[in-house]
Amino acid sequence: VGSLKGLDKKLAALAAQLTGEGQISPYVVRCASSILDWLLLCALRRPEGELLRDRAGVQTDLVATNGALPWQIGVFSPESEPEWEETPLLQHTAPPDPAFCAVLEKELDYVYPWEALDGVPAKVTASELAAGEYEEEYIAFSRPAFLGQGGMTPAERGTALHAFMQFSDYKAAAEDPQAELDRLVTGGWLTPEQGKAVDMRRVKAFFNSALARRILAAQSCWREYRFTVELPASRVKPELTGATADQKIVLQGAVDCIFEEEGGLVIVDYKTDRAVSPQELWQRYKEQLFLYQEAVRQCFSKPVRACLLYSFSLGQSIGGDFS
Question: Cα(143)–Cα(145) distance, rounded to whole angstroms?
Fold first, then answer.
């Protein structure tokens, strides 16, 4: 049984491909678009296919005489579309199953227990978490290079100074900062452009400071110390309560400098952005230092006795004892 629209047109197209040969051409068989095409090709050559040949408008010389069993071939064309009758609804239905209804109600009333954590990232950096109200200020530091002196933005010049503080030998830099800068440029630690952007006046001021002397005299010193620790989700979303507040998120970051002296560890974060006063800079970054303090305690299992900012713009250290 097969059905299609435009039967006569289809039969004429198929009959045009037939010859009086004993078999249908393999090319014609391969070009068929459906199994029904194959069946109609065969039916057109059957002795019982006179009705199909008449509708295709072809002669009887296509008939093959080697058919084995007789076929019954007929064409049925409905005069109009059948009218569909609506099936009446059952008048009597089975009573509802109370147990199944209870299951449905329970599933439909389900509330995701951790919905309050929506929007809380699984991983966050210390700078992102601490940015808060100052986030727009951070974005403003990133300017097109053509607006910066010497082709470098303030952020790029700050990056160059941070790179110098990360890779330099502090003892050598304290003795001869320019020679240490030349060594870093020659060794590929800084690009020539970065080397030109480092403000040596501010570098010399740092190595002449009391903070630099403390670092040089420290028992141990770690620079650009990278950490990954866990924090409760309430640090990202303070309004969380209960179990959701205690869910853990991953905090990542890097501390510019950590040194150890008697009484514990001291965290130092170098800042190159401008500030009107030490108080302004401290308010901007204190939350970031608190996060560093918590991360360093977890990583070293030692007390943190102080967290300090060193402002290259102001030429002074800011902060104090946290122990």
Answer: 6
